[in-house]
Design a protein that fits this description.
heterodimer, A: 142 residues, alpha+beta, four-stranded antiparallel sheet, B: 288 residues, globular, disordered N terminus
Chain lengths: 142, 288
């Protein structure tokens, strides 16, 4: 009887784990595992951040400064949502404050939240030379 | 080919195989070791209360992220419990503490704007391990209960791969195996790392022109994911499938710098391999 109950729990749990394949509903820890599931389109758009100097030069920032993480999946989601919801103003101010506090580089005068669009394969082949860049928002450092 | 585990046959016997205490403890230790490493390496991500909040799972009713002190406390508890499991001390209570604390940490992380799919199987396995430890009778080892939890963990592994394969057909359709999809996934990951201030894999650029190999690799990925149930059939199938799935994850890590730690460190496949290796041994039968 006890073994039958354990077996029933196994069957029910397995069906629960398989259910998202039918419902498509993603959650945690019961997930539909949609990672890499799309027939990825040729073009992609990312929201990210960069710094600019008084001379107008562009300075790349690290993923830790941009997204407060080492995980690109987390940083990608964070910046994209920030741009969609508030034009990235709050993230821009946060990065500017971080730069001011931990990287006191006098030459950096502003942070820009930007949207980068490109053919993903061309971006990799040309090292981003053909990417289209749109400034979403800009905020001063200090 | 291994024989059935027990003298009795049928679905119930298959779902509740007998394992030795040493097999169960080996699995428990492996879970503890890899969770311990993961908790340390991922501490900055796990302890960060993100500004964006899209609650999932147990945190669905919450309006905002947890206070940092709860995250820190959970992390410390999980760390200690994983260490105890890794050292093979106090299995039942350590597994319970690890399950509770890790569920809080990992669900919180996946509620912070992005579900992290590589955390799904680890937490399922930890919860199942805890059930197997908690249901042990006081003062003795029940090989059936332990085997039940290991079989359920093996089923969890298989289910997650099958669901991932079906998701590709459901979302991407047959286009998913069309020319260029895999190379676009590799290029997408490289571009994402590049624009977000990371360092893309040096293998990404040479691989964006895979040509026909892209379709072949896409088919292989689907065969591995949808073919996961064969790993439940017999030992050789379990080994072949586990090696194939491990190679797939090694390829993803090398080309996209996306690390699925649970399969790469072998924990995802451990229940399949340990069960198929030890289930028909005389020691397993004695411990029933």
């Amino acid at each position: 009887m006890r073994l039958a109950a354990l077996a029933f729990v196994s069957v029910a749990t397995t069906l629960l784990m398989l259910a998202p394949a039918v419902t498509g509903r993603d959650g945690f820890p019961v997930s539909s595992h949609p990672m890499y599931a799309t027939a990825r389109p040729p073009d992609a758009s990312f929201v990210t951040a960069r710094a600019t100097t008084a001379a107008g030069q562009v300075v790349s920032l690290s993923i830790r400064v941009i997204g407060e993480t080492d995980d690109p999946l987390v940083a990608e989601g964070r910046l994209r949502r920030a741009a969609d919801l508030h034009d990235g103003v709050a993230e821009c101010a946060r990065i500017a404050a971080d730069i001011d506090r931990s990287h006191p580089l006098d030459t950096i005068v502003a942070i820009e939240i930007i949207r980068v669009e490109a053919s993903v394969t061309d971006f990799v082949r040309t090292d981003g030379a053909d990417a289209r860049v749109e400034v979403v928002t800009r905020c001063p450092v200090r | 080919m291994p024989r059935a585990v027990t003298s009795d046959r049928g679905v119930v016997a298959w779902l509740t195989p007998i394992v030795t205490e040493s097999t169960f403890r080996r699995w428990s230790r492996l879970v503890g070791i890899v969770m311990l490493g993961y908790l340390i390496v991922r501490a900055p991500v796990l302890l960060h209360a993100s500004g964006s909040w899209n609650p999932v799972g147990i945190f669905s009713p919450l309006d905002g992220p947890l206070p940092r002190w709860i995250l820190v406390t959970s992390w410390i508890l999980a760390l200690v419990a994983a260490g105890v499991l890794a050292a093979d001390r106090g299995g039942r209570s350590a597994a319970g503490v690890l399950a509770g604390a890790a569920l809080v940490l990992l669900t919180h992380r996946s509620s912070s704007g992005q579900i992290l799919w590589f955390d799904v199987l680890p937490i399922l396995h930890v919860l199942i391990l805890t059930a197997g430890a908690a249901l042990q009778p006081a003062g003795r080892f029940d090989g059936r209960v332990a085997g039940w939890s290991m079989r359920l963990a093996a089923l969890a592994t298989v289910a997650t791969y099958v669901v991932a394969g079906l998701a590709k057909l459901r979302i991407g359709g047959l286009d998913w195996v069309a020319d260029g999809v895999l190379e676009r996934h590799i290029a997408y990951s490289a571009m994402r790392l590049d624009v977000l201030g990371g360092t893309p894999s040096p293998l990404a650029a040479p691989l964006v022109d895979l040509g026909f190999a892209s379709t072949l690799l896409a088919v292989i990925v689907l065969v591995i994911e949808l073919g996961a149930p064969i790993a439940l059939l017999q030992r050789r199938a379990a080994i072949v499938w586990s090696v194939a799935a491990w190679l797939m994850h090694a390829g993803i890590a090398a080309t996209m710098f996306v690390v699925f730690h649970w399969p790469l460190f072998g924990v995802a496949f451990a229940p399949l391999l340990l069960l198929s290796a030890g289930q028909d041994s005389p020691a397993a039968k004695r411990s029933a």
